[in-house]
Each structure stands twice: as C-alpha cells, then as structure tokens.
C-alpha cells in the first residue's frame, strides 16, 4: 500500500466517523424533552383522568404549565415508568 492510498483510506474512515457523529448529534437535537398530557398518558398507558388525579393527589405533577397546556418532562416520565 502506498502512502497516498493509506492517506485516502484514512480520509474515508474519518469522513464516515464524522458523518456518523453528525447524524447522532442531530438525533439528540430532535429528541423531545417535554411531552403533552396526551403524549404522557399514552407513554404511561393511563387515561387523562388518571393523570389529572395523580396531579391533584401529588403523585405525578406536570413539570410545566403554559396557559392551559400542561407538560411533563422526559425524566419525570422515565422515573414514573421505572416505579410502575
């Protein structure tokens, strides 16, 4: 293998690695950090009534409220899934 061939092969490997890193980084940017009531209920496999009751009982409270919209954090949902 010549020096030029080795350099070319190395550059190809570096390009592939950089491309994969860019794809992974973009996937992280697209990942949701908060979920609506409907999405949360679906993820937890419970009704909206159950989510409402949990909120009133202090069992599982939303992490944010914007106007009438309620949002639950991804971390809170994951923690709740581990408990159940």
Describe the structure.
67% of the residues lie in helices and 13% in strands. It has a three-stranded antiparallel beta sheet. It contains four helices and three strands, in the order H-E-H-H-E-E-H. With 84 residues, it is of the alpha+beta class. The protein has helices spanning 3-30, 37-44, 48-57, 74-83, and strands at 34-36, 64-66, 69-73.
| Radius of gyration of CA atoms, rounded to a whole number | 22 Å
Q: So how many helices?
A: 4
How many beta-strand elements? Answer: 3
What's the end-to-end separation, in Å?
Answer: 59 Å
Order of strands in the sheet with the most strands? 1-3-2
Instruction: Name the shape in a single word.
Output: rod-shaped
**Regions with pLDDT < 50 over 5+ consecutive residues?**
none
Biggest sheet character: 3 strands, antiparallel
Mean pLDDT: 89
Strand percentage, roughly? 5-15%
Question: What series of H and E elements makes up the topology?
Answer: HEHHEEH
* Class from secondary-structure proportions: alpha+beta
Helix content: 55-70%
Secondary structure blueprint with pairings:
Blueprint: H1 3-30, E1 34-36, H2 37-44, H3 48-57, E2 64-66, E3 69-73, H4 74-83
Antiparallel strand pairs: 1-3, 2-3
Characteristic key phrases:
3 strands, alpha+beta, 84 residues, rod-shaped
Summarize this structure briefly:
The protein has four helices and three strands, in the order αβααββα. With 84 residues, it is α+β, with helices and mostly antiparallel strands.
